[in-house]
Write a structure and sequence with these properties.
This protein is an alpha+beta fold. The chain has two domains: 263 residues, Dipeptide-binding Protein, domain 3 (Roll); 195 residues, Periplasmic binding protein-like II (D-Maltodextrin-Binding Protein, domain 2). It contains 17 helices and 19 strands. The longest helix is centred in the last third of the chain and has 19 residues. The two termini are 40 Å apart.
Amino acid sequence: MSDEHTNGRWWETAVSRRNVLRGGLIGGAGLAAAALIGCGDDDEEEPVATPTPPPATPTPAPTEAPTPPPGEEQGILRAPGDPKRGGSVTTSFWARLPNFDLYHGGHRGIMSQAYDGVTRLNPLDGLKTVIPALATSWESTPNGLNYNFTIRDGVTFHDGTAMTSEDVAMSIRRHMRLGEFASGDEGPGLANGTPASRYAGGFSYVSHANAVDESTVSVGLKSPRGYFLQMLSAPQLGVYSEQHIKVNPVDMAATPAPGTGPFVFQEHRTEELTRFTANPNYWNPELPYIDELTMLHTVQWADRANFILGGQAHYANIVPKDFYVDRDSFADKAGVFQHDGTGASLTFFLNNEKSPYNDERVRRAIFLAPNRPSLIEVYSESMSLAGSRWVSDSTYSATPLDQLQQIKGYRGEDEEAITEAKQLLAAAGFPDGFDGGLIVTNTNQAHSEILAPAMQAELRDKLNIDLTVDPRAGSGRTDELNNQGPDGFDIVLTVHFRAPVISEFVTAWKQNIRTDASGNYGNYSNPDIDSLIDAIDEEADVDAKLEMYANAMNIMDENPPFYVVAFTKHNAMAANELMGHMEEIRGFTEEGTWDLFWLDK
């Protein structure tokens, strides 16, 4: 991956934030927003180059995650240095909780504090390896079709009950909709009528999960996956008690069920905060170091950074890029660290079931006409973006830059592409454009007052598609994204197109593009793409996978499910007194458990 991929100007373009603002994409409120977001100097006529970290090497095709050698203390993490105990830490990021159930959108960066998974990604090596958590070790068969996990002894849930191997096996089955949870109907303990898990689609290759004996859980695969342990290590795969799911079921969406994690849930105030205290009986005697963790819900990125600089918070997972650029000016108070996002993209989801977006000619026109480099440039004042096609630029399957620049829809201001887009609209019955309805966003200013209005202007000026930007507070954007069908949403700007395993981006396609996938919000359906997704996922030969990735991306360029602007590069920020965050070595953002946090004061 080159510098051009990461700095937001990987095509030649003379667009700057100031030019866009002057051009009428954003009104007076947008100018105020630009100041609040903390963007670059608007007195610069041309984009000013911003420092970027050394270019990363594209991630190779995944093999089974390397595992530390077995040892007596395997899984007993300790923070580097000489950690101090005590004190309270406050985080500041998007910390809204739609519900408390990890399997149903109970924010993985929040509720994961109260739970442990079977395995986890190692925070001490930048999340490169898989290490034990509730399993102390594991073995796989030579054909990669079966894993036996040895379950840690002496673990208790927060209510004092002992964790069993059946708790672990049952949690895996529930998360992956196996066994008694396979029907997809209302899951045990869920009073709100939702299925047992909304993440099961990514684990369709798993056949069973059973407790073999008191200390062993066996997980079977229908066909091998090199990334299985990485997916198993996701923060939202916390283990629940069979007692609370089957014996005395509770509505875990409305009531937090006891976990085994390093922190114990204490309170949640809607749109304000969630608070945890240290688990005094945690199975790892080293952790946690802090006594209390308070997680503030802070929508605007600049507010998060200013809270840290003002001493009101210690950590934020995303702050405006200007704080990264200017980090030396406040180095005595805090540090800012830039790395890949969670495999997430800025995406305009289109409702493929609603006219006129149910016509692939209309979607292709919307894919062709906008100046994608301009959209990237406008937004990249707030966050570094990486242009790519239908996969993250950091994965081995990304299209090389020199090839990307030759493809219509990616090469910038392009009269040939605009002409084709107009012809497609005319053929679809819209020679004079149409009323496109709403672009729904959240209330983050970078979305609602910068990127969405920029897209609105591109489609209005080039295709006469008239759209209204509609920012929604709270759960409004998510609610609209779930308002599907012929009478549902029009367009929603979101970051929901993301990969559970960044290196193997087909994992995103499985949950966001495949027919009937849980995250296929626009209800796109293409049998050729479905077949390629399945084939890529099962193929072991890298060259064969690359060919299939390329074929699939060619098809989606012609018949797009939605509009991908670019992939995100996050700027995390931490107060100097906060230690154990390990942001300086992370390869990507993972909003998981903050059990290594400690305060150096």
